[in-house]
Request: fold
Amino acid sequence: MAVLLTDEQVHDVRERIRQVAERQIAAHGIAALSLRSIATELGWTAASLYRYFASKAELLDALRAAAHNRFSDRIEAAHDSTDDLWERSRAIGDAYVDFAMQEPAAYQVMFDYEQEEGEKSDDLRAAERRSHLTLTTYVREMAEAGLFEGDPDQIAHTYWATIHGLIVLRMAGKLDASPGFDTLRHAAMRLITRGARPDRG
Reply:
């Protein structure tokens, strides 16, 4: 007879599975991940893992929700670290890059794996809405303060698309040479920022 676990114990086991899954994704990629490979690393039977996740798709859904929420924790902390809007923007950019570099498997599962909207859990949809909000709120605040003009969502998405592209290039080993990742990132952000600033005439 299976042992009944408390909600807290179930959460702890699922968290342990998540950590193993992200480690395997970092080492071998999303395609190589399977419940069987995780069970083998944990020393479990594959059947025992199905008590916590019914399928690889369900596990990836949970991984993505957890990754989005950890990402949002970082961005929200950066947002709240200062009241200066320009310093806040820089802090958010730094937090974004730090998360991607420190948790590359989580970053990969957030953006390199996609699900049909109808297949997403409520937890994942909520986590995605939260992370989208973290990346648009500060730009909207800057626009409201007169520091930017134009559509805040478009400006925020331009920032995001640029920094994401640079991160993908860095992860692929394409930005190791001059001018270097940080130099290029700051130059790209300055160019976007200048274009979004109002014309003071």
In short: The chain has a mean pLDDT of 90. DSSP finds nine helices and no strands in the chain.
